[in-house]
Design brief:
The protein is mostly helical. The protein has a single domain (7-113), classed as Ribosomal protein L20, C-terminal domain (c-terminal domain of poly(a) binding protein). The chain has five helices and no strands. α1 runs parallel beside α2 (32-71).
């Protein structure tokens, strides 16, 4: 049987790893052993933070709604409860945008709950 040399596959794999770590600092961009670790860690962080971002955004929306609700004489929890009882269905993202960009409209929504 003829001898099979795997140089091309090895170089292609190495080149791909180093391409993924372009822009990293120190040896993590140029040394394959460090680059592999960097890619694994970056991928793990990216996966986790894609989910974390959703939590963070919802938390930000709640903070904005609470601040605007308190200006209108309600707390966040009482406002959400009043919205549910009044049958007004507006998600927190939209409420947050109203609170930040259109306070007058937000105040009308709060009045509708009372």
């Amino acid at each position: 049987m003829p001898r099979v040399k795997r140089g091309k596959a090895h170089l292609k794999r190495r080149k791909n790893i180093l391409a993924q770590t372009k822009g990293y600092m120190w040896g993590r961009k140029s040394k394959v052993k460090l680059a592999k670790v960097a890619i694994l860690k970056a991928g793990k962080n990216a996966y986790r933070d894609r989910r974390r971002k959703k939590r963070d955004m919802r938390s930000l929306w709640q903070i904005r709604i609470n601040a605007a609700a308190r200006e209108n004489g309600l707390s966040y929890s009482r406002l959400i409860d009043a919205l549910k009882k009044a049958g007004i269905v507006i998600d927190r993202k939209i409420m947050s945008q109203l609170a930040a960009e259109h306070p007058a409209i937000f105040a009308e929504v709060v009045k509708a709950t009372k």
